[in-house]
Amino acid sequence: MRHFLILFFLLQLSILFPTLVAGQGVPVPTAVTQDTAAVAGQDSLSLAAPKGDIATTIKYSARDSILFEVNSRIVHLYGDAKIVYGDMNLDAAYIEINYETNTLTATTLPDSTGKETGTPMFKQGDQNYAAKRIAYNYKTRKGRISEVVTQQGEGYIHSEVVKRNQDNEFYGFHNKYTTCNLEHPHFYISAPRIKAIPNDKVMSGPFNLVIGDIPTPVGFLFGLFPTPKSKRSSGVIIPSYGEENLRGFYLRNGGYYFAWNDYMGTRLTGDIFSLGGYNLSSSTSYFKRYAYRGGFELGYTYFKGEEANVAAATGVRSTDVPLNSQFSRTTRTFGIRWNHTPVTKPGRGAFSASVNAQSQLHNRLNYNGTAQYLAPTLNSSISYQKTIPNSPFSYTIKASHGQSTTTGSMNFVLPDVNFSMSQVSLAELFTDAPATNKWYENFTVSYNLNASNRISNVVPARTGSDFPLLETSPADTIDLNFNNLQNLWESGQKSAVHTFNIGLGNYKILRYLTFTPNVNYSETWLDEKYSFRFNPDSQRVDIDTTGFGRIYQYSAGASLNTTIYGIVNVKGKRVEAIRHLVRPSISYSYRPDFADPRFGFYQRTLVGADTRTNLPNYRQLGRFRTGLPGTGLSSALSFGIDNSIEMKVKSQNDSTGNQFEKVSIIDALSIRSSYDFAKDSLKLAPISINLNTNLFKIITLNINSTFDPYKADSLTGRAVDDYYFNLKELKLARMTNASITLSASLSPETFRTETSTPTNLPALSRDQDPLVPEYVDFKIPWTLSVGYSLRTDRSFGVNGRSNLTHTVDMQGSLNITEKWKVQYMVGYDFVRTNISNANFQIHRDLHCWDMSIGWRPFGFQRGYNLTINARSALLQDLKLTKRSKNNTFSY
Q1: What confidence tens digit (pLDDT) does each residue in 383-430 have?
Q2: Average pLDDT, the chain
Q3: What are phi and psi of 631, to 5 degrees?
Q4: Which end of the chain is less enclosed by CB atoms within 10 A, N or C?
Q5: Is the CB of residue 296 less than 8 Å from the CB of residue 281?
Q6: Distance CA 273, CA 270 (A)
Q7: Over the stretch 309-356, which tens digit does the pLDDT of each residue have?
Q8: Does residue 625 belong to any structural domain of this protein?
Q9: Nearest C-alpha neighbor of 415 from the set 394, 403, 398, 401
Q10: Are residues 631 and 671 located together in one domain of the fold?
Q11: Which InterPro entries does the protein's record reference (predicted)?
Q12: Is 404 part of a structural domain of the chain?
């Protein structure tokens, strides 16, 4: 009888819910419309699920119990209830399934103490919702959620009530939008109404910022927060506002971002100032995977102010600006930046660009940091480079530009063509015969051709003593416009330089010596050559241009070097052996005197009478504007010796005593000088001695010094042809300069293992305020970098003196607590007995906010800075900044 009742109950259940079986994935209809008698007459093994409005599988489970209300068609799930419906997942302490209304309802349940547990969690796709109560219609895909927390991108939305439509969009009432992931956030944007489009954007009406449950007046009439999943989206860029001394109150960096596709986007922004003036900027970034990436930026500035204000803002006086500019009232500037970086591939050409061209004052009016403000020049280049496959040849076509930010002068190299051949064997170059190890097969040659035209818009002033142009003429400036293109081209210096490096192989002498001869030859072609003639009437040198000119120069030499090993076996308690490496080298080079008249590169010309003796004064004048070889015969012998000393010690981490490691005592100790046989005096060059080593794997030591082997004149201080060396008085050479530097970088990682690398402080960005660091790592408890420098430069004679530089500097960081960090940088000058530089930073980790306080007590940049900003990249413009030197607030 009991088995019959169970079978009858299951039969009735299958009639009412023909496709609902707990824990199985079977399609569920929304209503039973078939004839029950017809269904009962079918074979239960081949029973097909009738089609209804919902054909998606429902999977469910519960830890405590599952209760079926057959008459009302309701299923109750108690304790860790879970439902999976397509891409939708619902977890809660209690879930109700109502097949009459096609709804799912999830709530919390009180535990034995009365505390609510089992917060409902709703997930569909990558969207997550946590709420106290969730009601969802799985037929219409609409829902109503109470006291919900949803995540959209990096942001979290806390809402009292949320309604969700069939397009997965939801509308929230009485909302808190924040990037803080705590249940009670530290800050939030309070908005009465919010609409969220998943993977796209969050929009709100009027909102204001609340910090620590304290409402602030910071807000706007509407809010737009992009929350894209994978691809970028277009949207409004909210401006920041504040005040400047020179231009008044402002709205800055407001505009719109256009996301054309996943590979290209454009940012259009502008600034507007209450005292007049504005900035416009367009920035486009692009990339193509495995091919290239880059960005293009255009900027325009309209600055309105008095002359004194402009000079104060730019550091440029009115006399430095062209007369035709309206400098006293308005200034208009522009700037262009373009960078293009290719992904190099073998056998394919690579096009690259780095362009930075601006008006003279544009960089000063729109700088983002001290380094950019003080940059003396702007440089640009565009090039195409390719290596010809299966050959030693390559070529580069380039155009470059240089601009002075102080004088406004511009220099161009257009075009700049370079063709080169890498080092190849002469035998391989002229014959296809296989190598036979003949001595002449070691001969190699490399070739380089550089053809260029150097153009400048500034023709410098020339006086009677200039070299080589001797006519007196004032400075001149060629305006950069299309009408002057021909003048600019004709004023350029056109040249072609050919360079040959010929290697004659390497040869062993006496088994241990390596002998390497070499020959170098270069030739320059120029579009102008000069001829000089003294004019007795005007007492001036006249110059004639004779057209094409050719310059060549050559040199030859050879080097001899070897390596000597010295080993001392100590067999001590820890030290096993000491090894000394000595690398002596000697080389000889010869170059003729290219001022000899037979070469024709220089002309001995009468330039007038000597004012002291009234005798004729002759000078060697170069007959070319550039590329002139040096004068005087050179026959020099260079010599040097390099040393390094290291120990072989037993490893401290090895208990067997069979493992060893190398410890350096001296990394490099070098001595170098040369002797020129062709000079008539002072043939021996100054002697340089350099020492580099690491002490205890922590301290880096560098010692550099220069010694003059000759005595100095007691009056002028110049060297005289008399050696300073005196063995009896223990005088070796006269020291002219010497320096010693010590540096060490320490952190906890330095002392953990012997192979640890000291951790240095992160470097500041070039375009960043020096009072605000780019990155603060709270994981490192402390760091310390110490540098010590001592340098002396000596001059001799009556007015001789020694210039001493003696400084020490420290920089580092210290975690006072897990959330407080102090960074410091201090320098002290022992000669001037004052603090040369100091900068202090205090950082506070506010969980979802960062606070930074900076103080620079000395120097022209002295001042303080206070910044509080949201940590999330989504709200990175949500910040409060106070700068004392500009007296500005910005939000």
Answers
A1: 999 998 888 899 999 988 887 766 667 778 878 899 999 888 877 776
A2: 76
A3: -95, 155
A4: N
A5: no
A6: 10
A7: 554 444 444 444 443 344 445 678 888 889 999 988 887 888 999 888
A8: yes
A9: 398
A10: yes
A11: LptD, LptD_2
A12: no
What does the alpha-carbon distance between residue 318 and residue 305 come to, in Å, rounded to a whole number? 13
Which DSSP category does 839 fall into?
E
Whether residues 678 and 698 fall in one domain: no
Listed residues 660, 685, 710: the one ending a domain: 685
Instruction: Specify burial of residue 136 (Cβ count, 10 A radius: 0-12, 13-18, 19+).
Output: buried
**H or E element: which one contains 37?**
helix 36-40
Residue 400 pairs with which residues in a beta bridge? 381, 413
Is 884 inside a domain boundary? yes
Considering the domain architecture, whether residues 816 and 722 belong to the same structural domain is answered as yes
Closest CA to 841 of 821, 868, 826: 821
Measured distance CA(889)–CA(252) in Å, rounded: 12
Q: How far apart are CA 183 and CA 638, in angstroms?
A: 75
* 274 occurs within a structural domain: no
Beta carbons within 8 Å of 400's beta carbon, 6+ residues apart: 379, 380, 381, 382, 412, 413, 414, 416
Check: CB of residue 199 under 8 Å from CB of residue 227: yes
Lowest average pLDDT, out of 365-374, 443-452, 652-661, 685-694, goes to 365-374
d(Cα 214, Cα 179) in Å, to the nearest integer? 17
- If you search the block for the tokens 């500005």, which residue do you land on? 888
pLDDT in tens, 172-201: 888 887 877 777 787 788 888 888 887 677
Per-residue DSSP letter, 684: B
CB-neighbour burial class of residue 361 (10 A; exposed 0-12, middle 13-18, buried 19+): buried
CATH code of the domain containing 34: 2.60.450
Is the same domain home to 776 and 679? Answer: no
Among the candidates 182, 205, 228, a domain finishes at 228
Question: Is residue 582 domain-shared with residue 678, that is, in the same domain?
Answer: yes
Number of domains in the chain: 4
| Structure-block tokens of residue 128 | 């997550």
Residues 793 and 756 in one domain: yes
Token pair of 296, please? Answer: 């293009």
| Count of CB atoms situated within 10 Å of the CB of 835 | 13
Q: What 8-state DSSP symbol labels residue 318?
A: G
47 vs 110: CA distance, rounded Å: 42
Q: How far apart are CA 721 and CA 782, in angstroms?
A: 57
Which pair of structure tokens corresponds to residue 687? 């002697």
Are residues 744 and 813 located together in one domain of the fold?
yes
**Residue 847, both tokens:** 């969980």
Type and span of the H or E element at 814 = strand 802-815
| E strands, 426-536, in order | 444-456, 458-459, 476-477, 493-503, 507-509, 513-526, 530-535
Q: Which of 422, 420, 424, 429 is nearest to 444 (CA)?
A: 424
468: cis peptide before it, omega within 30°? yes
Query: How far apart are alpha carbons 301 and 367 in whole angstroms?
Result: 12
Closest among 343, 212, 237 to 289, alpha carbons compared: 343
Task: From residue 429, give the alpha-carbon distance in Å to each of 421, 441, 450, 502, 614.
Answer: 11, 10, 22, 13, 61
**CB burial string 330-350: b at 16+ within 10 A, e below:** ebebebebbbbebeeeeeebb
Extended strands (E) in 229-370? 235-237, 240-244, 248-261, 264-273, 277-288, 292-304, 330-342, 350-358
Q: Are residues 195 and 54 in the same domain?
A: no
